[in-house]
């Protein structure tokens, strides 16, 4: 267990301390670099951004067009239109056997805003937030905005990077306010089983002051079958904020819609937060989200078949790359190899690869493949490659990576 240290950006004196202390999202930063290179005519393969490469299913697009044609273009209630909140409650029952009422649901501008709402409404300055590490890139920065103190709890490679209940029990202190994790996990692809979450629930139940944000945005992209929700365990249900959304399962990243479910005081607080910052998300997007849920999950199932095939393809390709230690991801669409075998090696230009950031920049420069430094996810020995790309692109990317790495001495 270690406490996070923030690397300060170059501060600008007239900006707030808050923004000066904040890091840019590295997933977005690397995607920006790849786009800049592509604009110069370089044939870049970007495996940096975690984004489905599929189109949003047509029936969802049609619902949005209909909403526009019907003039559904006004502000909606801040936590979402009643029909959508009800459909989300129904989805929780159908998929997760969870009983939520519409008053427990807040629809937001992406799961990202749902996460930020939860952190900002629960965390006081100085509160400790335990983040299962490797973690999704924005968790720590959100905690920083809330002036909380991140405590990284690191899962071991041997346990597929999954933090255990025993680790959690040791890490909780009287100052702990929140625990955050994603399952399936971005970046590792790890999926916590029902038994593992049951043990975690037993620990949480002993600390009624502790809340947990369970980020389930990759719920549908799961290759082991069963998705388990922490809120399923009655003893802790009121302590859990379940976050989910449409970006991954329905390939709706640009529509900006996600949601959370929580006890009603927390949901009402998130609504208040949102009412002062963004109000409701887009009315048209909400009608699209409603159609998505009414259509069930069969469109997701088709995409998941492709993600599984690509995962298998990439794991085969990676076997051919010496020095990459890669647990098999059980969900999401990333591989997260330990690449530290390359640290200390020298590039053909005489530069020493000190860390995964140097390696990511070298692969971009030499192989024109963009990936993200694992430090952004709390694992500086690793790199993240998205597998949400066409099979031929993945094959070409890993061919290039192999060639570039072979030049290191
Ligand atoms: N949580 C995780 C684990 C993610 O990978 C992402 C990235 N999309 C989000 C939340 C945010 O998703 P959204 O696009 O719905 O804001
Ligand atoms: N979730 C995606 C990723 O991890 C999108 C990037 C982001 O929102 O930061 O790459």
Tell me what the structure shows:
By secondary structure, the protein is α/β, with parallel strands linked by helices. The protein has 2 domains: 17-55 and 299-406, Aspartate Aminotransferase, domain 1 (Alpha-Beta Complex); 58-297, Aspartate Aminotransferase, domain 2, CATH 3.40.640.10. It is built from 13 helices and 13 strands. The protein has helices at residues 17-21, 26-39, 58-69, 82-96, 110-122, 138-145, 165-171, 194-205, 264-277, 283-294, 298-319, 356-367, 391-406; strands at 2-3, 45-46, 105-108, 128-133, 149-154, 176-182, 211-215, 240-245, 258-261, 334-335, 369-370, 372-373, 383-386. Helix 8 (194-205) links the parallel strand 6 and strand 7 (211-215). Residues 1-8 have low confidence and may be disordered. The site of 4'-deoxy-4'-aminopyridoxal-5'-phosphate (PMP) has 13 residues, from helix 5.
């Amino acid at each position: 267990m270690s406490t996070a240290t923030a690397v300060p950006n170059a501060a600008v004196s007239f900006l707030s301390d808050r923004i000066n202390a904040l890091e840019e999202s590295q997933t977005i930063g690397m995607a920006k670099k790849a786009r800049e290179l592509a604009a110069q005519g370089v044939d870049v393969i970007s495996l940096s951004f975690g984004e489905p490469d599929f189109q949003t299913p047509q029936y969802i697009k049609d619902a949005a067009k209909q909403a526009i044609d019907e003039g559904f273009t006004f502000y909606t209630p801040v936590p979402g239109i009643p029909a959508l909140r009800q459909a989300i409650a129904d989805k929780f029952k159908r998929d997760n056997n969870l009983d939520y009422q519409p008053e427990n649901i807040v629809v937001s501008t992406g799961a990202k805003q749902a996460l930020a709402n939860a952190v900002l409404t629960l965390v006081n300055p100085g509160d400790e937030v335990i983040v299962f590490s490797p973690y999704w890139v924005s968790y720590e920065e959100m905690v920083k905005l809330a002036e909380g103190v991140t405590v990284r709890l690191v899962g071991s490679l041997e346990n597929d990077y999954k933090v255990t209940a025993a680790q959690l029990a040791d890490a909780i202190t009287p100052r702990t306010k929140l625990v955050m994790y994603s399952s399936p996990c971005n970046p590792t692809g790890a999926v916590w089983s029902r038994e593992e979450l049951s043990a975690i629930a037993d620990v949480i139940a002993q600390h009624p002051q502790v809340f947990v944000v369970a980020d389930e945005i990759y719920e549908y992209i799961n290759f082991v079958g069963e998705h388990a929700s922490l809120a399923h365990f009655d003893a802790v249900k009121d302590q859990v904020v379940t976050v989910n959304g449409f970006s991954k399962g329905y390939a709706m990243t640009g529509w900006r819609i996600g949601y959370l479910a929580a006890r009603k005081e927390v949901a009402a607080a998130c609504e208040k937060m949102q009412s002062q910052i963004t109000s409701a998300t887009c009315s048209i997007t909400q009608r699209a989200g409603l159609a998505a849920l009414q259509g069930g999950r069969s469109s997701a199932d088709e995409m998941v078949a492709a993600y599984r095939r690509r995962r298998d393809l990439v794991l085969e390709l990676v076997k051919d790359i010496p020095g990459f230690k890669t647990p098999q991801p059980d969900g999401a669409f990333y591989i997260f190899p330990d690449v530290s075998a390359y640290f200390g090696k020298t590039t053909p230009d005489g530069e020493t690869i000190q860390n995964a950031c140097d390696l990511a920049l070298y692969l971009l420069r030499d192989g024109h493949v963009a990936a993200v430094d694992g430090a952004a996810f709390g694992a500086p020995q690793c790199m993240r490659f998205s597998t949400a790309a066409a099979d031929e692109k993945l094959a070409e990317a890993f061919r290039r990576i192999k060639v570039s790495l072979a030049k290191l001495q």
